[in-house]
């Protein structure tokens, strides 16, 4: 497993060296964040580059001054709409140069791991996830990649290896997060490579639950790439790794929904319904179970979102409509992207049910928030809805929706599906 991860370290190391040279010639141009932004303003537990990008994330998501930080995580208060333009400053704002690294006898550069490294990564992952849910991965991918190469990768080659397994697990999580942001930004080939590396890092860390978590991500991507057979196989592999591991009930439920989605795309309605039922039963029985470290959250809204897609694929429109409406009810306003996905699913359901006027109304709601998102997946879904509604331009509300969509539609949709390479599991 370590040898498998070694090849990924070589690739990461090349990125680190390139990033170090690039950082020397950059000038920080991001917005000013005052001390009042942070309660206590104590970022001493974060490396220099981590602290800088954390402050940028606070500004980007419009967090209030009630944000509290400790050495392990942070909790946010009410989140408002950001007044900072998303496209432009964030992707272009570089991190400051990382701390002066040590030089080993081989002449290579590395950063020694310390006791604070894993809590630092945990805080950064939380910060990125909070921003990602609000604005989408398109604006964040460059910055999470810089963090990965400047702060995480150098510690993976620390010759002392004092916290090897623990830090490999942290690296797997950041790499998986980069994969999701690449996917949301329309870079499916890049997302697949990140998930591949995250799986190998999790295996090198000897964390079966974390490897299963990456399997869920890979299964999702395989379904998005119209590879339901591969998606089902990968989800099954994840279930084998997750079973028997403590704190994995929500992950197991998530993997069963991945199986259900694969089966729905293959037209297997009975098996799909059975998998969704299993996932619902497991999720309802989780109670106060503490999830295993680094696992993604999976809740009722996430299950409903997947169920809506399953029922839509199977033509079970009444069930799909109920599930999509459930997501919209459960997701609060700051979960902009999640709500937009659910609204797009609902609009497709309404159109398939010969209700184009209602579909246009829902589409208008997506148009009203799309300018705050940098999600190629949302834009692609909006494009698909627009194409499907064009034959109904004479129907009340459809023309207005198409005009609104044209006004807010800034970029092209996601890139073509990735394919050709083998999955790592």
Write a structural description.
With 425 residues, this protein is mostly helical. The chain is built from 17 helices and 4 strands. 50% of the residues are buried.
Keywords:
globular; two-stranded antiparallel ribbon; 425 residues; mainly alpha; two-stranded antiparallel sheet; 4 strands
Number of strands: 4
> Please, what is the average pLDDT?
77
Major sheet characteristics: 2 strands, antiparallel
Alpha-beta classification: mainly alpha
Structure at a glance:
With 425 residues, the protein is mostly helical.
Element layout with pairings:
Layout: H1 2-24, H2 48-61, E1 68-69, E2 74-75, H3 89-92, E3 102-103, E4 109-110, H4 117-135, H5 141-156, H6 164-184, H7 188-204, H8 208-224, H9 228-242, H10 249-265, H11 269-284, H12 300-314, H13 317-330, H14 336-352, H15 356-370, H16 376-389, H17 398-408
Antiparallel strand pairs: 1-2, 3-4
């Amino acid at each position: 497993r370590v040898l498998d991860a070694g090849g990924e370290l070589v690739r990461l190391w090349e990125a680190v060296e390139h990033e170090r040279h690039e950082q020397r010639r950059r000038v920080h141009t991001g917005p000013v964040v005052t001390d009042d932004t942070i309660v206590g303003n104590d970022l001493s537990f974060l490396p220099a580059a981590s602290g800088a990008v954390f402050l940028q994330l606070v500004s980007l998501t419009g967090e209030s001054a009630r944000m509290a930080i400790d050495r392990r995580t942070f909790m946010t208060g009410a989140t408002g709409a950001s007044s900072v333009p998303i496209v432009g400053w964030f992707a272009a704002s570089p991190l400051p140069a990382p701390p002066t690294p040590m030089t080993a006898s081989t002449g290579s550069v590395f950063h020694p791991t310390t006791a604070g490294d894993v809590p630092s990564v945990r805080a950064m992952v939380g910060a990125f996830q909070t921003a990602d849910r609000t604005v989408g991965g398109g604006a964040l991918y460059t910055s999470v990649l810089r963090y990965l190469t400047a702060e995480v990768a150098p510690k993976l080659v620390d010759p002392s290896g004092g916290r090897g397994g623990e830090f490999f697990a942290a690296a797997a999580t950041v790499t998986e997060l980069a994969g999701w942001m690449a996917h949301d930004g329309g870079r499916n080939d890049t997302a697949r490579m990140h998930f591949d590396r995250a799986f190998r890092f999790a295996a090198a860390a000897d964390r079966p639950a974390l490897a299963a978590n990456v399997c869920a991500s890979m299964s999702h991507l395989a379904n998005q790439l119209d590879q339901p057979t591969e998606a089902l196989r990968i989800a099954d592999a994840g279930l084998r790794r997750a079973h028997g591991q403590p704190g994995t009930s929500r992950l197991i439920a998530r993997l069963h929904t991945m199986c259900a989605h694969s089966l729905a795309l293959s037209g297997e309605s009975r098996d799909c319904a059975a998998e969704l039922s299993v996932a619902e039963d497991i999720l309802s029985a989780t109670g106060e179970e503490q999830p295993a470290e680094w696992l993604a959250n999976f809740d009722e809204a996430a299950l409903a979102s997947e169920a809506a897609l399953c029922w839509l694929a199977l033509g079970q429109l009444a069930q799909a409509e109920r599930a999509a409406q459930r997501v919209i009810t459960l997701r609060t306003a700051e979960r902009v992207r999640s709500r937009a996905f659910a609204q797009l699913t609902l609009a497709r359901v309404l159109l398939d049910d010969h209700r184009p006027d209602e579909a246009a109304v829902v589409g208008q709601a997506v148009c009203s928030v799309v300018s705050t998102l940098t999600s190629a997946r949302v834009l692609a879904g909006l494009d698909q809805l627009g194409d499907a509604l064009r034959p109904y331009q004479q129907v009340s509300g459809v023309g207005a929706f198409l005009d609104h969509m044209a006004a807010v539609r800034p970029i092209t949709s996601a890139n073509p599906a990735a394919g050709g390479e083998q999955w790592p599991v």
